[in-house]
Amino acid sequence: MNLFPWRRPRPTPLAVELQQRLQGLPGPQPLADCSLREQRWVVLDLETSGLNLNKDQVLSIGAVVIEDGAVDFSQQFERTLLREQPRLGASVLIHGLGPEAIAAGQVPADALLDFMTFVGDSPLLAFHAPFDEHMLGRALKDSLGYTLQHPFIDVAELAPMLCPDALLRAAGLDDWTTHFGLQVGERHHASADALVTAELAMLLFSRARRQGLDSPRVLAEKVSQWRRRQQNQVF
């Protein structure tokens, strides 16, 4: 009997091939001083079994790449992760990943290693990034013993910072896509949500450049300053 169920299980020892691939992953790079257009960005979305940061699991990963100022459709990633006893809450009604789809998924260690190979040394973008960063980081630690250190920028913070005239503060992805008039064909599917987030991010990058924020490092510093101001206003 596990007396401490909140503690993470130790990762299952990896096969030699996976160990070699893990050791060959490039390390993350600090946010650069190049232009936003020159930076390769990986835009991430996760579907999870719920919103509990310590108990729920990553069920699928979707990602697209922004490079040279546009979505590169030749670089896309999508995986459903195999979970033997998935903890499925009400979220399954939203993303539609039922037991059969999850049972047909890829072994988590393989899927997560494939994803980090896809990411390389690029920074990540996500909408409500702290959640995705925490859930991805926990999954990587549990399955691979890997510590996630890649920088994340939260598109949910970028949008109100760069568009104060929109008067949208605690807005969701749907609110911002409506505000900008983006055409959304599908939602609540990891790959589709990653693509919508990428389209929103490109619009926001254009605004950032007009405001003199034309490097990943400068943009991240501005977001950090904006976040502190928001927190100070609350308190």
UniProtKB/TrEMBL annotation:
Q: What would be one Gene Ontology cellular-component term for the protein?
A: cytosol
- GO function term, MF aspect, one: 3'-5' exonuclease activity
Alphabetical GO biological process terms: DNA metabolic process
Q: Where is the Exonuclease domain?
A: 40-210
Q: Which UniProt keywords apply?
A: Exonuclease, Hydrolase, Nuclease
Q: Which InterPro entries does UniProt cross-reference here?
A: Ribonucl_H, RNaseH-like_sf, RNaseH_sf
Write down what this protein is called: 3'-5' exonuclease
Q: What is the lineage of its organism?
A: Bacteria, Pseudomonadati, Pseudomonadota, Gammaproteobacteria, Pseudomonadales
